[in-house]
Amino acid sequence: MAEGKRSLNFIEQIIEEDINSNYKRESLKFRFPPEPNGYLHIGHASSICLNFGLGERYSAPVNLRFDDTNPTKEEQEYVDAIKKDILWLGFKWAEECYASDYFQQLYDWALEMIKRGEAYVDSQTSEEIAEQKGTPTQPGTESPYRNRAVEENLDIFEKMKNGETPERGHVLRAKIDMASPNMLMRDPVMYRGLHKNHHRTGDSWKIYPMYDWAHGQSDFIEHVSHSFCTLEFLPHRELYNWFIEKVSKPDDFKPKQREFARRNLSHTIVSKRKLLQLVEKGFVDSWDDPRMPTISGLRRRGYTPDSIRKFADSIGVGKRENIIDVAHLEFCAREDLNKVAPRAMAVLDPVKLIITNYPDDKEEWLEAENNPEDESAGSRQVPFSRELYIEQEDFKESANRKFFRLTLGKEVRLKNAYIIKGEDVVKDQDGNITEIHCTYDPKSKSGSGTEESMRKVKGTLHWVSVKHAVEAEVRLYDRLFTEEEPDGDKERDYLDFVNPDSLKVVTGYLEPSLKDAQILDKVQFQRIGYFCVDKDSTPENPVFNRTVSLRDSWAKKKN
Ligand code: ATP
Ligand code: MG
After folding, report:
1. Is the pLDDT of residue 1 over 70?
2. 499-527 as b/e, with b when 16 or more CB fall inside 10 Å?
3. Is residue 385 within 8 Å of residue 363, measured between CB atoms?
4. Rounded to whole angstroms, how far apart are CA atoms 462 and 127?
5. FRET label pair with 459: which of 213, 278, 490, 556, CA 20 to 30 Å apart?
6. Residue 487: pLDDT above 70?
7. Per-residue model confidence (pLDDT) at position 4
8. How confident is the model at residue 401 (pLDDT cuts 50, 70, 90)?
């Protein structure tokens, strides 16, 4: 990899500084901490590549930690999907950890804090608590319960834990500073009552820790050295450090939170909550619908792990949020698929081409290179016969000199086959062309070495022999949203911008070598785009997804 050559990003600089001062290289440890409340998306891929990439660079362990502190939204299905996606991207975690494994430890620490007078049970409603928060320029008001006796705090907190108090009756708050300029330090909530079953701890707990009271502590328990999170957590850093200080001794090894910018992708959304809406409201079929920016959707669409990793690495980590053009992701897919996807011919919008001077009963199997970018990919045989399908758009009865495809009286080459000349058309009552008649030059066979085969013609068309064609359902996907930033408009809902034409299904006619393609196999339909066998595919009803067209059709057309 060209990895070694690039300069250090700011995250790596932080680590280098740390190992040159008070950290030992051996003590480096990272984590990727998803909440199992949905499937991972392309934004998570950035965080995965960052954390696991650092692990590779510094030979340091990286934990997969499920931040499972909110049982109302979390499910085992999501845990399984997240693990599958990370492995598919090619990364391995050191340990599989769960914040829920630390519930007891967190509870014990909370008891100690109550005993030291650093936490108290507040019995006000959440609205009352919110009203007392103050504003960034005005200090908050202290809760009337702030100085509750330790014994009473311990008593109610235990009842909360056992579910003996109403769900919303009380919360446990850290006693910090209601006048702090950092609003998050104004006695933040540590626990709330929630009488919900947890996907791992069942009904053991009737209280659940808040993110701030679980995340840093989990990092501390696991000896994570650097805890990287997205920028919105910058103001949480002070609280992160405050909590760690409360649960640790001065000599303990303490994790360090640092922030990087969230990555957004144009023409889509990267938020599990909003993606869930698309699934639940039926705009897409599932989390792994090939239009989804989820890792599972991209996989099903035909993206390779390499293309996603290259995408994440090429955009790198930043300090400021921005929107990456989805065209860049598509570019990464093309670049990788160009190398790995074998070529084949498929016609998606057919018209019949009849070679009038080619014998009716003749059939030839012509040699075709599998991948001009990769000699080791070898070649295959493609059947040729008198009746072929070509694309409707590859023919015009008459056209100007710039049209390098088939017209009457002009020659073009049929890829891997012969040079043909347009002779005539047959039309139906409405004037639609039903057949194109042409003649071929028998001496012009590709690769035959004859003078005729070397003759230069302006265009080369792909084709499929009618009697050998394999019919397939071809799903032509397009961008899921028409707007560049669908959730950027405060007035309108992102769901208003769903592209109504994000999926078009056509019947394609494929060369027979594709009959045995397996689910997830990649292929380039020559002159059209990259495709991938969908999981709905069966030998009787093959289904292909368009991963990406050969060229960016959304870029401004030049002429
Ligand atoms: P979502 O809103 O989609 O649920 P999240 O940040 O709440 O996103 P988590 O499961 O908490 O999702 O994220 C796990 C890790 O991935 C966190 O460290 C988070 O900061 C990071 N992450 C999530 N979205 C992005 C993104 N768009 N770009 C970079 N990192 C991201
Ligand atoms: Mg979240």
Report:
1. no
2. beebbeeeebbbbbbbeebeeebbbbbbe
3. yes
4. 67
5. 556
6. yes
7. 53
8. confident
Q: Are residues 423 and 368 in the same domain?
A: yes
- 539 CA → ligand 2 middle, Å: 40
Whole-number Å distance between alpha carbons of 343 and 370: 5
**Which residue in this structure is represented by tokens 């290289």?**
25
Identify the residue whose C-alpha is closest to ligand 1 atom 2: 271
Question: Cα separation of 360 and 547, whole Å?
Answer: 37
Instruction: Categorize the per-residue pLDDT at 555 as very low, low, confident or very high, splitting at 50, 70 and 90.
Output: low
Query: Distances from the Cα of 120 to the Cαs of 171, 174, 214, 243, 342, in angstroms?
Result: 8, 7, 17, 15, 65
Domain containing 487 equals: 272-342+472-558
Q: Indicate the DSSP class of residue 228.
A: E
Mean pLDDT of 426-455: 95
CA nearest 382: which of 465, 467, 470? Answer: 465
Q: What is the CATH number of the domain that holds 438?
A: 2.40.240.10
For tokens 């991207």, name the residue: 89
Ligand 2 centroid to 290 CA: how many Å? 22
How wide is the angle at C-alpha 538 spanned by C-alphas 532 and 539, nearest 5°? 100
**Residue 387 is a catalytic residue:** no
Quick one: 415 and 484 in the same domain? Answer: no
| 202-220 core/surface letters (b: 16 or more CB in 10 A; e: else) | eeebbbbbbebbbbbbbbb
Q: Which pLDDT score, from 0 to 100, does residue 523 have?
A: 98
Range 546-551 average pLDDT: 95
- Record the pTM: 0.95
119: phi then psi, degrees, rounded to nearest 5: -150, 150
Q: Which amino acid is at 213?
A: W
Q: 6: how many CB neighbours lie within 10 A of its CB?
A: 11
- The whole-number pLDDT of residue 2 equals 47
CB 524, CB 342: distance < 8 Å: yes
Residue 49 lies inside a defined structural domain of this protein: yes
Domain count, the chain: 3
In this predicted structure, the answer to whether residue 556 has a pLDDT above a threshold of 70 is no
E strands along 136-277, which residues? 171-174, 189-193, 207-209, 226-230, 256-260, 263-265
Phi and psi dihedrals of 440, rounded to 5?
-120, 160
Can you tell me the mean pLDDT for 322-334? 96
46, 79, 230, 323, best to mutate for ligand 1 pocket (most atoms within 8 Å of CB): 230
CA distance 57 to 555: 36
Kindly state whether residue 70 falls inside one of the protein's structural domains. yes
186, 262, 299, 410: which one is catalytic? 262
